Amino acid sequence: MQRLILIYLLVSAASVHADFRAGAFAQDISPTKFPTPVNGSMKGGQAKGISDPMNARCLALHDGNRSLIYVVVDACMIPREICEEAKALASKATSIPPAHMLISATHTHSAGTLTAVFQSDPDPDYVKTVAPRIAAGIIQAVKNMEPAEFGWAFGSDPTQVFNRRWHMKEGQYYENPFGITTDRAKMNPGQVSPSVSVPTAPVDQDVAVMAVRSLADQRPLGLLANYSLHYVGGNPAISADYYGAFAREIGERLNAGDARYHGKPAFVGIMSNGTSGNINNVNFGSSIRYKRNPGEQINIVARSVADAAQGAYEAIQWQKDVTLDSEEVDIDLGVRKASAQEMAQAKEWMTTIPKDKDGQWADKKGIYARETVLLADYPDTVPVKLQAHRIGTLSIAAIPCEVFVQIGLRLKRDTPFVRHFTISLANGYNGYLPTEEDHAMGGYETWRARSSYLEVPAASKITDKLEDMLATLKRRAQE
Fold first, then answer.
1. Which of 82, 109, 145, 192 could join 21 in a cystine, given CB atoms 3.0 to 4.6 angstroms apart?
2. 77 and 429 in contact (C-beta within 8 Å)?
């Protein structure tokens, strides 16, 4: 009898054994001292408290040979230095190479400042706490790994994404912060503006979903979604915006808080930012504009996108054996800087344009003059970290920029794998990434500043390189 019991136990253990493992964890990284600086506007703001916390939502995957780590941080943008420090700390504890880790920001405009942009500078004491806490989240996600199944699917939500850049009509113009009136594109032109005609580019309505569940009991472990929406806004800072609301909503939809799962690691829902550099949640082609209470629009968007994500989840074909692979490379790209004449003009404006009572500029000429002077201290070239991942037949790219939607659509079209999505604002922050055509049109996203400084051909160079990296992953998959 004892021998039969032993055989039964061995068979039972084998039935739940798999090389593929997964775990997740959400690590709070919120500021603890207030007021605290907040990113998201051209003027630096201050948060007085927390509407909903900032988290580093971590997903760890392991196929028996290679690990991949995904971290999505509730932040407007996250600098390369914090990413590198967090990866190094986590790697030391887990032995997972830093190159196998992806850390991105959601782009909520109501989070504690982590990197200086426009007139918002971070609290250095707060910044010091962030990398160790992200690392702690990664380490715990790895500890939470268990035999798992993986799957992916795509849903669609066209109702929440609109291209925010519009063509100027013939004969219409406006003056940009450099005193130039030749820009032919305008961001956020206003409802049914008579000065513009049509959006300059399409949108990406995909809601990509990849998820893991326990092999033993089919318990949802984690779900990472991707949607190309810049942000929503409307909540007082500190807030994770719709990204945090989506995480809560999808957990409820999947019954991840079921009493049967108590005592086991909590499910983690994650929303990553796709290629949304020129996409937002306002339809400027409509005269209708709804008045919302704080947080109302955030929840409307979260529920809408969760509908699409839930539909995708229900269509997943679960796999027990999945192969992971990845490529990482740094490419050097040029920095756009002012000419001597432009620098002289900027310095003059900084001395002649008055500041507000808060000591900050409201006039965009003053704001961009300051950016011009600050950019002069940048090196002539900067390293830009790119990643390409493969999870079975799904490919993922990571770019440290606010990436224009046309780039993401091209990568989706050209991937050598079955489907693809791109995570923006990943592994650092190198500003907006407009296409060369968009640079020619001008407009906010192209204006030279610490939020937009890469050389004009940067988008083409980045996209070409990522396609080479994806091709390398495909060759390895076929070997």
1. 145
2. yes
